[in-house]
Design a protein that fits this description.
About 10% of the residues lie in helices and about 30% in strands. It is mostly beta strands and about 60 residues long. The chain has one helix and four strands, in the order ββββα. A four-stranded antiparallel β-sheet has the order 1-2-3-4.
């Protein structure tokens, strides 16, 4: 568990569990939320923009 200031965070393989110490727009103090690790990485700018654009699978026929 890591103290992130306004919440405690437990990092999992693909998600983060957050225990809020203060009220935020999406949770009250004492509540827990689960954040998707991929979404957190995208919001932090860790994923290139071109990697977020869907492409047609080569196995699909045109």
């Amino acid at each position: 568990m890591e103290d992130m200031g306004n919440h405690f965070a437990v990092r999992l393989q693909r998600a983060v569990i957050q225990l809020w110490k203060v009220d935020v727009p999406w949770a009250k103090a004492g509540e827990t939320t689960v954040a998707n690790g991929g979404d957190v990485a995208k919001e932090a700018g860790l994923v290139r923009a071109d990697a977020l654009v869907p492409i047609r699978s080569p196995s699909l026929r045109a």
